[in-house]
Amino acid sequence: MANRLIEGAAVIGQSGGPTAVINQSLVGVIEGLRGYKPIRRILGMRHGVDGMIRALPFADLSNIDSATLDAVARTPGAALGSSRAKPTEADAAKIFEACKANDIRYFFYIGGNDSADTCRIVYEMGVRTGYELRCIHVPKTVDNDLVGHDHTPGYGSAARYVAMAFMADDRDNASLPGIKINVVMGRHAGFLTAASALARRDESGGPHLIYLPEVPFDTDRFIEDVKQIVGKYNRCQIAVSEGIKDKEGVEIGARLIAGAQTDAHGNVQLSGSGALGDLLANVVKERFKSPSGKPPRVRADTLGYLQRCWPEPSQVDSGEARKVGQRAALEAVNGGTDGSVAMTRKSNHPYRIEHHVLRLSEVAAKTRTMPAEFIRGHHDVSREFLEFVTPLVGELPRFGKL
Q: What was the pLDDT predicted at 293?
C-alpha cells in the first residue's frame, strides 16, 4: 500500500439499481475527500461508466455547498444517474483514456457485485499500463448479496419498505379474507423477501408463508401449504421471492417471461413483470376450491421497483451509507489501491458495526445467499434472521386490534 497522496482528480460514479440511500454514500465520499489539497477536483460520472464510455461531461462536485449536499443525501435515487453497463476491453480503454485526459487518480464506484467487477476491471487496466489509479468500491444493493459483507447500504431501507407493505397488506387481507400473494425483489438471495417476516404481530398475522430462492419451490407442496393455512386462519398472505427456482435450479419467473429483456450482465428482467404472481394466483384458483366448490378469492401484487427508492429510509441505513462513503474516501487517501468497504457486525445488543476493506477480487461478480441458519423449513425464516434484520430497519408502526 502506497502511503502518499497522488496529485490529481477524483471521480465518483453510481451504478446498478438505485436505492433510498445511494446518495448518502455519494455525499459521504465527497465529504471524505474535501480538505486534501493534492485532490484538485472531485468529478461525478453521468450515468456511471456508461457516461465515460460515451464521453458525457462530468459533473463538478468540488465546491457544492453543505446545504445542497445534505438535500441530495436525503433524496432517493441516483443523483448522478446510474448504469448497468458492463465494460468490454474496448470500453475499459475509453474509461481509462477519460481518466488520463482528466488526470483522474481516484476512482470510486458505488454499486453491487457487478459494480465491484467494473471497478476491478478499471483497476487492473491501470496496473497493466502503469498508470497509478486507486479504485475503491462503495457497496450498495437492496438484495444484500455481497460476499464478505454483513449487510449493505440500501438493504435496511428496502427491508423496512417490505415489512411495512406487508403490515398494511395483512390488515387488508384480514378485513376481506382471501389468499394474497406478494412478489418481492431478490434474484438469487432471499434477504429482502425474508424481511416480510417483520410484519408479523401475532400467531395469526401474515405473512403466513415465505418462499425464498435458496429453497427449491415445489408447486404441489405450495398448494398444500396454502390449504393448511386457509384451513387454520380462513385466509393466507404469502411472500414470494421473484427469484424462486424449481428443483433443477431454473428461475420460474425467467422461464415464464417470453422474450424477456436482459441487461448487460445477462440477467432477465424480473421486477417489471407480474408474470410470476399471476402464475401462482392461477395455480391456486385451479387447484384449490372452497367448500362451496368455487375458486377462492386470490389476488397477486408485484412490489416491483417501489421497494428500492421509497423516500422514508431506515435511519440506521442512511447513517451507515454516509459513513461507508466517508470510509471509502479515507481508504483511498491513506494509500489503498483497490478495495470494497464492508461492514462487520460486532454486536446486536447494542447494535454495533465496524468497517473493514476487502480486495476487489473478493467481492467482484460473486453472490452471497441467505445462510442456512436464517431459513426455517421450506417456507419460513428463523429467529436468527429476525435478530439480524431488526436493527437495520428501525422502529416499525404499532397497530391496534379489536
A: 73
**Residue of 50, 91, 114, 143 with catalytic role:** 143
Residue 257 pLDDT exceeds 60: no
CATH assignment, 157-308+372-393: 3.40.50.460
State yes or no: is 143 an active-site residue.
yes
The C-alpha angle 198, 204, 208, rounded to 5 degrees, equals 60
Q: Classify strands 338-348 and 351-358 as parallel, antiparallel or unpaired.
A: antiparallel
Query: CA–CA separation, 126 vs 134, rounded Å?
Result: 9
**What's the whole-number mean pLDDT along residues 138-147?**
97
Q: How confident is the model at residue 294, as a pLDDT? A: 76
Q: What are the domain boundaries of the chain?
A: 8-153+313-363, 157-308+372-393
- Tell me the CATH class for 8-153+313-363: alpha beta
**Residue with cell string 461508466:** 49
Cα–Cα distance between 116 and 125 in angstroms, integer?
14
Q: Is the pLDDT reported for residue 261 higher than 60?
A: no
pLDDT at 268 over 60: no
Contacts of 62 (CB under 8 A, 6+ apart): 41, 42, 43
Cα separation, 324 vs 334, whole angstroms: 15
Q: Tell me: pLDDT of 290 over 90.
A: no
